[in-house]
């Protein structure tokens, strides 16, 4: 056995909160308040109010768990390689990987590891104009499912591009971040240059949809600057440099 190496996230605000919770005692109540609100057992328009107690109790949990039979996929991310699994019986290729084939006819057939190319196409995507605290500074961003070339399934991944410049079927390259810890955030996708959206692209065939999206984006830019001092120009530069 080699020497165990634990790569820790030294910059996460969430980790700092966990450390504070551990110091105080994970489940100690930090405070409370009394509020009035609908009782919930009346008809709409006939609501009755009553008092409720709100308890402030930290719930930070740090997990230590095995990645099991798909460990090779996450070790591959650290090494800058993209792996999938293939069923030797039906030929289905999974990325993200599955240790056993999900085709009912294959009867939980164990799969085999294969290396896949760092490219694919957008299967579907969502534009995130707001998020949980841990990702606020990354707004606005695109979360997509990318079908890696050679795979039959789709991989959840961040697409680093202007939200108005992403569409289903778009070809993308997979890039690896410089500092990697063996998680899906180690990789991201960037569109292959020189592509034009197809005529059937919902977002691009509807000028009002683009107008509405750009208006909503301006609200997100305003929030970022007020909260973090991140300007619109800084966000655009992030897209232009492909996340680097």
Please give the structural blueprint.
Layout: H1 13-24, E1 31-38, E2 49-56, H2 71-79, E3 82-86, E4 93-94, E5 112-116, E6 119-128, E7 141-148, E8 155-159, E9 171-176, E10 187-191, H3 202-205, H4 207-228, H5 232-240
Antiparallel strand pairs: 1-2, 3-4, 3-5, 6-7, 6-9, 7-8, 9-10
Q: Could you walk me through the main structural features you see in this protein, from its secondary elements to its overall organization?
A:
- The protein has 244 residues and is an alpha+beta fold.
- It has three domains: 13-56, no CATH class; 68-116, no CATH class; 118-240, no CATH class.
- It is built from five helices and ten strands.
- The strands form three sheets. A five-stranded antiparallel beta sheet has the order 8-7-6-9-10, with no helix packed on it. The chain has a three-stranded antiparallel beta sheet with strand order 4-3-5.
- The chain starts with 12 loop residues before the first helix and ends with a helix.
